Amino acid sequence: MNQHLIAILAVALVFGTGAAPSKSYQPSDAELQQIKTKTDELGVALKRLRADDALLADVEVYHKAAVWIVRYADEEFYSKKYVADTLAVLDRGLARAKELATGKPSWPTQKGRLIRAYRSRVDGSVQPYALTIPDKHDGRLDVVLHGRGGTLNEVSFIAARETNTNPLPPEQRHITLEVFGRVNNAYRWAGETDVFEALASVRQRYKIDENKIVLRGFSMGGAGTWHLSLHHPDVWAAAEAGAGFTDTKRYAKQDNLPAHQDATLRIYDAVDYALNAFNLPLVGYCGEDDKSLANTTHMREALMKEGFQFTPDGLNWLTKDLRVLFLIGPNTGHKFHPDSKQRSEQFIQSMLPRKMPSHTRFVTYTTKYNRCFGVEVLALEKHYERAEVEVRRGPNGNVLDVKVKNVARLAIDGREVRTPGQPVAPAALRKIHGLQGPIDDAFMESFLCVQPSGAPDARLELFRREFAKWMRGDMRVKDDKAVTAEDVANHHLILFGDPSNNLLIAHIAGRLPIQWTKDAIVVGAQKFSAAEHTLAMIYPNPLNPRRYVVLNSGHTFGEKEFRGTNALLFPRLGDYAVLKRDGTVVLAGLFGENWELRSGTN
Fold this sequence. Notes:
This protein has 16 helices and 27 strands. It is of the alpha/beta class. Among the domains are: about 360-415, no CATH class; about 440-590, 2-Layer Sandwich (Chitobiase, domain 2). The strands form 6 sheets. The chain has an 8-stranded mixed β-sheet, sandwiched between helices. A 7-stranded mixed β-sheet has the order 19-18-20-25-24-26-27. A 4-stranded antiparallel β-sheet has the order 12-13-16-17, with no helix packed on it. It is globular. Residues about 1-15 have low confidence and may be disordered.
């Protein structure tokens, strides 16, 4: 078997199923002081550097790793080894800082295994990624998503790769990008943004053939691969999803959800997007003895419901209708069988490079995921219901036929196409790509939290703590009086407080579909005492409708869900909610396609 395939397999499983130890190592005062001394030294060196910000990020990521592990020292030194690893990470950062100070950094042209980083637009944080770069590169890039790791943090991510001294196989011709993904979130929310920001960074720094970008992952990484390949089917030349969950209700045993939560499961449940496998070569894999086999089977069954025929080939399943292959590792648990891995690689290699299809079939449930090979769904008739687009092209790429379902506005190759039932003129305010909700969507792009001047808000402080721990970044925070026109232009604004103590909430309160006065919160025909309740919601910012405004909410799930299965990271409040002061939800729902309260809200 190709030694590089074995290496990729090992990487995919490094953070696969391991749970955090019940009791972590507690560093001694002397060990913490040693780490602090080197951290301070690197911090001083960073302040003295004058260099391109992208190269600074490549150094700063080592400092960030040490700062973060010490911040969570009561938990994240999962063993004594993490002390030595932290010191080694700091030494590497100091060495890079010295190189950068001389103007001769070596790592931009380094071959083999290395760590690089980028600065995220979401929160300004520095996030790491790992590369393997062969001496000769054919333009192909494999993007690898790791499995869930109970002992994963920046230090362990960096150390595991920089201590790997095994030479790359001489036959390797492609670069491998291993995504950090902001730890363990199944590449959802800011974790999804991390994949595409890391990919963009690599494409800026190395010569990558856009028709040879392969996505692959195992376990949680397999779930991420199902999700990202089927929601973004035109980004990848091929995908390999190993042993990952594909839906929420079956995997996380979520029954009898409120209507607004049930609807928003359509955002991430990959099985609902199975039809998009029509547009890209895809391998689904699981071991015969793996409990995750039901998830892979569920995806195949979903494709069969779409009308595609599969026939058994031993344990595997083949089809002539799609470029899709389902592989089952014989007598294998939660790992990749070597023969299956080799067959998967042969299949993927045979599909490269990607070619522009003459026939596209695309399904979505939200304008969040709205693009596929020149097709762009601009607006839906109704969110969270199945929308379909089918396009056939001629030999020259000209459009011959278009069919749609639940699509209000559509563009093909950048030009808008009229659809049945399309309004004569687009509505002034509409749920569109990147402005469709729900509340959690605001935290996938640049956001700024705004607190009442001089009055820390308990909900903001909870969000600040949880985002730092679970999404590995410190959010931007300002007082309401300090917010500038530039802030309004560049960020989603997350406003905490009420009209009496937050100037920005008072300024926009009269321009929202839910009334909020000093006495009452009015939602349709219902009134709630403002003294006993607060309002959480998302809406296009009246001060800048190209950005969101969010009231009184960070992510609508929290520590319990982050520590549990990643499938629990689904929206809890929809687009709006009225909450008691203790956080109890008394009303929640979704706005209509024009960001209006739906009829019947009472």
